[in-house]
UniProtKB/TrEMBL annotation:
<keyword id="KW-0175">Coiled coil</keyword>
<feature type="coiled-coil region">
    <location>
        <begin position="55"/>
        <end position="99"/>
    </location>
</feature>
<protein>
    <submittedName>
        <fullName>Uncharacterized protein</fullName>
    </submittedName>
</protein>
Amino acid sequence: MEDKKLNTSIEDRSKHIQTSGSKLVVKLNIPTEYCDKDEEIVEKSQQDGDLQVSKESLLEQIKIVQEELEHRKQHTQRIAELSRAVEEWKADFAKALEKIQDTFAFVK
């Protein structure tokens, strides 16, 4: 068996992918060496509306989203706390700087 038949460039492979509306059609040309039957074209199509998701999968996704929202909420709160701490530090630093300036003004 030659692997060269399976090694096609991306451009060659893209010729077998077609889109029409919301439907994606992929045609696969399988060499006869890799197939029990004669050379055939295998067609697989999927419409966007045909997606079926299990209840467990949806619940898992909801749980993940809720955890992410909680994480973002905590992150926002932490940023607000840090901003308040920075503002306090700035105010304390300004007071300390004024005291230093007053001390040096008195020394002059």
